[in-house]
Amino acid sequence: MSNETEQYEAPMRRAFDLATRGPLIGGNPQVGCVLVDHDGTIVAEGWHHGAGTPHAEIVALSALPKGMDAHGLTAVVTLEPCNHTGRTGPCSVALIAAGVERVVYSVKDPGATSGHGAQRLAEAGIAVGHGLLEAEGEALLHPWIEVMRRGRPWVTVKWASTLDGRAAAADGSSQWITGAAARQLVHEQREASDAILVGTGTVLADDPSLTARGDAGELMPHQPLPVVVGERAIPATAKLHAHPRGVLETHSRDLAAILNELQKIDVRRVYVEGGPTLASAIIAAGFADEYAIYLSPALLGGPMLAVGDLGIPTMDGIRRLQIDRIEQLGDDLFIAATPKAATPKPATPKEG
Predict the structure, then answer these.
(1) Are 273 and 279 in contact, with CB atoms under 8 Å apart?
(2) In the listed set 149, 168, 196, which residue is the last one of a domain according to the structure?
(3) Long-range contacts of 10-15 (CB under 8 A, 24+ apart)
(4) pLDDT tens per residue, range 160-201
């Protein structure tokens, strides 16, 4: 990063702070933007409020003080300005029309259609700096970037179990393994998701409502879409039919196809609550991007494991995780983890 763009580190950090005010859910990333004058003073700022609303750059331009225009200003943005028309117009075009002198962004837009805004800006004669605090920008946008690169939603696999790994008693009963504090965090994680995946077996056994609820049982502002994985239809009396978002029955067990279809309807974050059969299938297929694990200090024994067969016959195939966070919730533990990159095996020396 050149000295010219290093002067924008403080404004970029402000843009990061603004970006986090935007929603995690929906098809669009969290983006922040500040407009800076030649003295380095922030004169306007904005962030993206969610799909279908103006992008951060447009919000910042609209926030300029009365009588001031953008000529000669620098736009500092967390993500490369978009270059396509979707629900809103291209931010690159809006910045050009506004007359900004320079654009500095942190992370390149990996989208095939939304990317290349920097090229359009440069072709219009606007100075462009990129890669400022890129590691921090990548961390902020990591799930969204991975969604764009892989073409499928970010998948969180959740389970609650006893310390000996049981998700239910031998008779199938499972309420409640964990306490109230742990269950409330689950509701918060549901609200931060676009969809909840559940298997038909879980619907038939537990008849869950899969709503996101507050401490007093009230519905939270955002409700994830319940998605039922499996070929069987769920009963007409199932509680899911009363869900505020309705219910999507896939009538399929093809996880890759299901995730692909969810991506097409702007589902970016999927929360898997479908019991051991669905969780194991997601993990075995390599679709688990992170884990939300709730452990109760209790023992049940018996056959009702939280995770079933992963198709791993030997230790060579073990799925190792990186622990990202551990939190005590009442008597329970919450563990946030992500898959750990496999360590290449050293080559076996040849004889002779």
Answers:
(1) no
(2) 149
(3) 10/40, 11/36, 11/40, 11/42, 11/76, 12/76, 12/78, 12/104, 12/106, 12/132, 12/133, 13/133, 14/42, 14/45, 14/76, 15/45, 15/56, 15/76, 15/77, 15/78, 15/106
(4) 999 999 998 888 777 788 999 999 999 999 999 999 999 998
Q: Which domain holds residue 183?
A: 153-339
**What pTM value is reported for the model?**
0.83
Residue whose C-alpha is closest to residue 104's, from 72, 131, 76: 76
Same domain, 197 and 335: yes
* C-beta separation of 259 from 227 below 8 A: no
What tens digit of pLDDT does each residue of 107-152 get? 998 876 666 889 999 999 999 999 999 999 999 998 888 888 888 9
Q: Which residues are catalytic?
A: 57
- Helix H or strand E segment including 292: strand 290-296
Number of Cβ within 10 Å of residue 307's Cβ equals 19
- 199's enclosing H/E stretch is strand 195-199
**What totals of helices (H) and strands (E) does the chain contain, helices first?**
10, 13
Strand 32-36 and strand 74-79: the pairing is antiparallel
Domain count, the chain: 2
CATH number at residue 109: 3.40.140.10
Structural domain contains residue 81: yes
| Angle, helix 9-19 to helix 134-150, in steps of 10 degrees | 40
Q: Is residue 348 in some structural domain?
A: no
d(CA 65, CA 266): 35
